[in-house]
Write a structure and sequence with these properties.
Blueprint lengths: L1 H27 L5 E6 L10 E5 L13 H10 L4 E4 L13 H8 L7 E4 L14 H7 L2 E3 L3 E6 L5 E6 L21 E5 L16 E4 L13 H10 L9 E6 L2 E5 L17 E6 L1
Parallel strand pairs: 1-12, 2-3, 3-4, 4-5, 7-8, 8-9, 9-11
Antiparallel strand pairs: 2-12, 6-7, 10-11
Length: about 280
């Protein structure tokens, strides 16, 4: 009888733990937000540079425009030189969109030298391709599609941003590299990280990507779960999230994003804003 009571208590405890975990995954973690700071080496520039990267907002009914307030606040608190958005504004434009509210929110993001965006796969589907360019333009972002943006800084040096089209639904190709001759530091923006092998050894010190969502699930001490989740959701097979040193002079960062897709839950992959200081 005593053993039965112990087993029953353990079953109840396990059930409560599972329910608590589910509540946290669906109702708490997706609405948290962390700022991850990264210090990168930059021996060539006379001016310190700060880039804030946002990715994969996936705005939808359960993560609408009002949830951008915290993102805007934490972004502006960094006093960034540049803000980069690496794609996927809405989760499914055909099912949910609120352009005026989104533009009003994104306009509040401030950067010393400018705000830059690229296309993600979700920025094409559900009719989003007809609206995305205008939304980002009205929000004060320069939207790049296989284009370079050479930005002069106050000390006379220049930083180059190359933004590629989305790999899944677009047609990415590297533009001419001649402007690299004028730049002090070169940043490549591409939504899907698994395609990075095509753009290695092209002269970019930093490659910024997103799309993976970090698998949205990361069980401590079982990294295979996160990798499998990212793969199953067709987000990433090779680069799940974080910093990857591709070679001596080339760093890839895979932003695990802010929103959710497929399943409105996160566990062990808190929504992030990434900050790069160099």
């Amino acid at each position: 009888m005593k053993i039965i009571k112990i087993v029953f208590s353990l079953v109840i405890l396990l059930m409560l733990t599972c329910l608590g975990g589910l509540y946290y995954a669906f109702k708490i973690e997706p609405y948290r937000l962390v700022v991850n700071q990264h210090q990168l080496e930059n021996r060539s520039s006379k001016e310190k540079i700060k880039i804030v990267q946002l990715s994969d907002l996936h705005i939808k009914k359960d993560f609408d425009a009002k949830h951008l307030d915290k993102v805007i606040q934490k972004t502006n608190e960094q006093n960034p030189d540049f803000i980069v958005f690496s794609g996927d504004l809405y989760d499914n434009y055909a099912h949910y969109n609120e352009n005026e509210q989104v533009i009003s929110k994104l306009q509040k993001m401030k950067a010393k030298y400018g705000k830059i965006a690229i296309w993600g796969n979700r920025d094409y589907g559900g009719g989003a391709s007809r609206e995305y360019a205008n939304i980002m333009s009205e929000s004060g972002f320069t939207l790049l599609r296989n284009e370079n943006l050479l930005v002069p800084m106050n000390n006379g040096e220049k930083i180059l941003f190359t933004g590629l089209d989305d790999t899944l639904l677009g047609n990415p190709s590297l533009p001419s590299s001649y402007q690299m001759e004028e730049s002090t530091y070169d940043v490549l923006l591409t939504h899907e990280p698994d395609e990075v092998s095509q753009y290695q050894n092209k002269g970019y010190e930093l490659i910024l990507s997103g799309h993976s969502h970090g698998g949205q699930v990361n069980i401590p001490f079982i990294p295979q779960v996160q990798k499998k989740a990212a793969s199953v959701m067709k987000h990433s097979n090779n680069y799940t999230g974080g910093l990857y040193q591709l070679n001596t002079n080339e760093t890839l960062y895979v932003n695990t994003g802010i929103g959710t897709t497929h399943l409105s839950a996160r566990f062990g992959v808190v929504p992030e804003i990434a900050v790069f200081n160099f």
